[in-house]
Each structure stands twice: as C-alpha cells, then as structure tokens.
Design brief:
With 130 residues, this protein is mainly α. The chain has 7 helices and 5 strands, in the order H-E-H-H-E-E-E-E-H-H-H-H.
C-alpha cells in the first residue's frame, strides 16, 4: 500500500534530482547538488528519497526566478517541522484539501502560498483535536 501511495505521489508532479535542479538553475559548480541540498538543510525546500536518490518537487521551485525555492514554502515547511517527514509532506501537498476548496496544495502554492500556509496550520489543528 505504501509503494502504491508513493508511486501516485511521484506521478502527481514533476520531480527532479539535485543535479537536475542545479542544471535548470544554471549552477556552474563542481558539486551541482550542493545548492539544492543546502536549501533542504536550511528548510527552504524538501525532497523525498526514492531508490536511494533524493527527488525535489518541481512545484516548489520558481522557474521564473531561476529555479529558486518558492517564497512562502519555508514557512509551510516550518509549520510541519517535526510533524511530517518528507514523504508525509509529499502526500499532503499532493492531496485534495478542503481548506483550499478541494484543490491540492501543490497546485495553489505558487499562486497563494499564504493560503497554503493557513491550510497547513489547519491540518495541524485537525491533528491536535482529532
């Protein structure tokens, strides 16, 4: 069941390795995965580990801003810090959310990150009282 859920999450969006993110962003360094991994460590982005490789969700990167992490994402990740692991985040972002009118957080993130942050807070309230 977990394998099927992970497969669905991976098929729900575009996912990129650190090297692919670095290439898209135009990083010209000897270690192309350094910057994406730094962002992950700083809580500005997340990645899921699949078959020994980290994959970063494309919906968290702003192509118009050189593939930097979207503004507002760090706030959302901070809300879930210690409460959801990377796969938990991926499941949440890819699931229809009633707080967002049935839309998936991954589809709203680039348009209204504050609304997605509110949905994240609402998720935790539901967990605390559920």
């Amino acid at each position: 069941m977990t394998a099927q859920a992970r497969k669905e999450v991976l098929e729900s969006a575009s996912w990129m390795t650190a090297a692919q993110v670095a290439k898209a962003a135009g990083f010209n360094v000897t270690n192309p995965s350094a910057q994406p991994n730094r962002w992950k460590k700083e809580g500005r982005i997340f990645a899921v580990r699949h078959h020994g490789v980290d994959y970063f969700p494309g919906y968290t990167l702003d192509a118009r801003a050189g593939y930097l992490p979207l503004r507002g994402l760090a706030k959302i990740l901070a809300i879930f810090d210690g409460r959801k692991d990377s796969w938990g985040l991926a499941y949440w972002f890819s699931s229809a959310n009633s707080f967002l009118g049935g839309q998936r957080p991954q589809d709203v993130l680039s348009v209204d990150p504050e609304q997605v942050a509110s949905a994240a807070e609402d998720e935790l309230v539901g967990v605390a009282h559920g």
